Amino acid sequence: MEWFFLFIAGLFEAAWAIGLKYTEGFTRLYPSILTVVCMFLSFYFLSQSLKTLPIGTGYAIWTGIGIIGTTILGVLLFNEPMDFARAFCIILIFSGIIGLKIISP
Asked: Which residues cross the membrane (predicted)?
């Protein structure tokens, strides 16, 4: 269950990172509320996963999922560039996540 919680935490991390763009510096009420809720849920699910997962593994995977999700959403929502070098680096992060999952107890 801890891996599921960690995955959900990572998704909420990507959501609040994207939400920050829509808050316009927390000057827009509804995007700000939604972003703060996503922050809370991200930290909540991360804390649940860390009851049994090692902190270094959990944190690395949480941020990795957030990085990958935020990058993909940035490309889709904000027309950010996705060239070969950027895609390759994202693949490296994904490979690290898979590696940590495989070697974790």
From this structure: 27-47, 59-78, 84-103
Residues 11, 74, 39, CA angle at the centre, nearest 5°? 35
pLDDT for 23 equals 97
Residue of 51, 65, 70 whose CA lies nearest to 96: 65
Whether the Cβ atoms of residue 18 and residue 74 lie closer than 8 Å to each other: yes
What tens digit of pLDDT does each residue of 2-45 get?
Answer: 999 999 999 999 999 999 999 999 999 999 999 999 999 999 99
Main-chain phi, psi angles of 100, to 5 degrees = -65, -40
End-to-end CA distance of the chain: 13
